[in-house]
Amino acid sequence: MSLSYPRNGVVGGLLLSKCLFLLFLTVCCTPEEPIQCKSENTDCTITNSYGTFPDRSVCRAHNVVYPTTEEELISAVASATKKGSKIKVATRYSHSIPKLVCPSGQDGLLISTKYLNRVLKIDKEAKTITVEAGVTMKELINEAANAGLALPYTPYWLGLTIGGLLSTGSHGSTLWVKGSAVHDNVSELKIVSPGSPEDGYVKVRVLKDGDEDLDAAKVSLGVLGVLSQVTLRLEPLFKRSITYKTESDSDLADEIVSFGRKHEFADIIWYPSQQKAVYRVDDRVPTSTSGDALYDFIPFRPTSSQLLEIIRSAEEALESSHNAEWKCIFGKLVTSYLNISAYGLTDDGKRGYPMVGYQNRLQASGSCLAEKAEGEVELEVEEEDGDAEKGYCPWDPRVKGEFFFQTTLSIGLSSVKNFIQDVQELVKLQPKALCGLELYNGILMRYVTASSAYLGKEEDAVDFDITYYRSHDAMTPRLYEDIIEEIEQMALIKYGALPHWGKNRNIAFDGVIKKYKNADKFLAVKKLYDPIGLFSSEWTDQVLGLQGGITTFKEGCALEGLCICQEDIHCAPSKGYFCTSGKVFKDAKVCSRQNQVGDVLVDIK
Ligand SMILES: Cc1cc2nc3c(=O)[nH]c(=O)nc-3n(C[C@H](O)[C@H](O)[C@H](O)COP(=O)(O)OP(=O)(O)OC[C@H]3O[C@@H](n4cnc5c(N)ncnc54)[C@H](O)[C@@H]3O)c2cc1C
Ligand SMILES: *[C@@H]1O[C@H](CO)[C@@H](O)[C@H](O)[C@H]1NC(C)=O
Ligand SMILES: *[C@@H]1O[C@H](CO)[C@@H](O)[C@H](O)[C@H]1NC(C)=O
């Protein structure tokens, strides 16, 4: 369905009623396989769950193997090592945005952990769980809960595998105890690496608490070998109480650190253009507290392809007509919808906060992965369409739905206040510039802590998740391109932010390794575990500072985050976008749109 951009409230109203009808569906689609092969398991391509890497290239591999046991995994590594083949581990869904999963060159081997998905042991006494590395968060959390145990802090999305999320340092949100990264509660890892001929070309190491190499292996970008088994420390299952509170963002900069210290599972959704912050007041409560709430985050629910297409078409139309006004209106619709739906929290029809429930039902969600979602809105779907339609994860590349960039950076607690104030300064200059973020649920701010992992966080920090429109055409600029580029560069350069290894555009990784004080220790372990770099690729070598090429200078490169513009040609001069300095962070070089007569919106100076 195509849609010209909304000109009046009628279209907005129509959109809203459509949304309400189509938002939830009962049946949903398992995401597509990230690996596709021409003939049986050979001549393969691999992509991520969004279907597109930051540079839009397609990655190739000679073949893929799907070990079902540790023995098969070990023999796959041995035979590839013997041949000198490049190797990469792939997972069930492959959720990372950068090209982490691509083996070097075109003839490498992919080892998929799709069938290494068993829970091996739960030790109730020691409160630990041992799993194969392909186990998803969903399986892990469910199994732990069945034994009365819980993982206290995890990412919010159930589709990740334990091997993948550890490799990229993934996290939830807390400043308490040891912080929100899953890798900080690994007590044991088994890792399968290349070996010498005397070793039979493969070496299996077991790393336990206290082993120095564990600090390399628990966040490894996959370059040390294959994680085969992981043991995590758990806690007795507990309950939480969640209340979302909306406030003006005028004291956000002052409150952010103390809010994080006050509430164990705190996070904040920031709507900078609306000048609002939604505080998640989230703490443990005694298990005797009544409530059985479920968190089923709305943007992770199965969504109809029709609705996704309507939203995307509207977004594209507003982009191409430079209609910031309507982006703001549309953004507010999305914001209010999330708000009235309690961000996806439900408890048997209960209205209002607090929502109380068990950890395993609240920490993470992802019903768009499941066979069946909550039945709640079945009726409405039937009214609309006659029969139940399939629902998708909103970014599923088979649907013309969400297509976005993600800039995910953590900024140390000592400078987060200044960063927020700088962003607010930009909003003052361009009040509508960040409305587009609201379509992607605002800026999610989460707390992370310094880690002993060599590639973990260097200091306690706030992680900013900024998701925004990406055009399907690499040469087409975005509305207010310059403002988000300025925020990105401000974070990275002025405030020394660290990128999430599994998200971001290329420029976030330019020179990144210099920000890690233990990078040398990491590289020493890499040399020991994989001396000839079979598990390394162009991308990991670039990220680890072993080879140049993270940024490339070519026409339009800044539009895709492949470079910071130096000349106009790196932007889109033919479309009126030129390389200029930042407005608040003057050292930034951004693609900004120069005055053009006859547009809906006239920007700049
Ligand atoms: C919808 C969504 C929500 C998300 N939410 C969060 C969040 O709340 N918090 C957060 O921190 N991140 C989040 N992420 C990012 C995500 O955590 C990372 O991208 C994560 O690495 C993806 O895990 P995966 O299992 O898909 O691994 P992949 O992306 O497939 O793999 C990541 C890397 O790990 C390597 N690898 C995988 N398994 C192994 C193994 N067994 N041994 C060795 N190397 C291995 C791969 O080769 C690759 O280099 C989210 C992503 C999505 C799509
Ligand atoms: C790790 O587990 C312990 C309990 O064994 C718990 O107290 C702590 O909060 C956990 N830390 C993280 C980072 O999950
Ligand atoms: C959510 O709704 C409440 C109650 O109507 C309102 O006070 C608050 O401002 C809303 N928050 C957002 C982010 O719209």
Automatic annotation (TrEMBL):
Residues 57-237 form the FAD-binding PCMH-type domain. The keyword Oxidoreductase applies. Transmembrane segments: none annotated. It catalyses: L-gulono-1,4-lactone + O2 = L-ascorbate + H2O2 + H(+). Pfam families: ALO, FAD_binding_4, GULLO2-like_3rd. InterPro entries: ALO_C (IPR007173), FAD-bd_PCMH (IPR016166), FAD-bd_PCMH-like_sf (IPR036318), FAD-bd_PCMH_sub2 (IPR016169), FAD-linked_Oxidoreductases_BP (IPR050432), GULLO2-like_C (IPR055154), GULO_Plant (IPR010030), Oxid_FAD_bind_N (IPR006094). It is an enzyme of class 1 (oxidoreductase). Pathway: Cofactor biosynthesis; L-ascorbate biosynthesis. Keywords: Ascorbate biosynthesis, Oxidoreductase, Signal. Its EC number is 1.1.3.8. Residues 1-31 form the signal peptide. Belongs to the oxygen-dependent FAD-linked oxidoreductase family. This is L-gulonolactone oxidase. It comes from Ziziphus jujuba. The lineage of its organism: Eukaryota, Viridiplantae, Streptophyta, Embryophyta, Tracheophyta.
